[in-house]
């Protein structure tokens, strides 16, 4: 009988001890959570105090950069670039950078851009039926053919090629910061000035 009483007392001690430890652990966890919440609130308050250059509060607390890193557009100065000046028809052609590379624009673009959905001044000189008479580089066959639909457009410029300045760019009179040792190799004498892309497009595929 005495042994049963002692065993019961031992069990009661263990139970009460476990409950006390659980309460202490819960209290400690609650305290840590409170400290973490206060720290987050403190950090948030600090972010809210960040000021932009114009004195306004930074509304977005999730910005990737500090508010004082934001550049005001009034402080931006565009580089003064000396673009090529000869007018269309008076300029000297550049050799292509490599075989079938889009040729560079060697003349001034004043009044010729931007190209809009209903106006493309480039085609007034560069369409094949006109280019020969005015001494311009003719638009190649690849631009008068729908590669996507495998269809000859019978002399009409493909809509995919309508925005010329997507690929063709003017040149600036600047000194290169690094020497370029690349030297293109053309397979025939005409490749530096003319395109045969449509003829060789599937080379190595068939």
Please, could you describe this protein's structure?
This protein has 206 residues and is mainly α. It is built from four helices and two strands; from the N terminus they run αααββα. The chain has helices at 2-48, 123-126, 128-134, 197-200; strands at 145-146, 151-152. The protein has a two-stranded antiparallel sheet with strand order 1-2. Strand 1 (145-146) and strand 2 form a beta hairpin. The N and C termini lie far apart (99 Å).
Helix/strand layout:
Elements: H1 2-48, H2 123-126, H3 128-134, E1 145-146, E2 151-152, H4 197-200
Tag the structure with descriptive keywords:
30% helix; 4 helices; elongated; mainly alpha; two-stranded antiparallel sheet; 206 residues
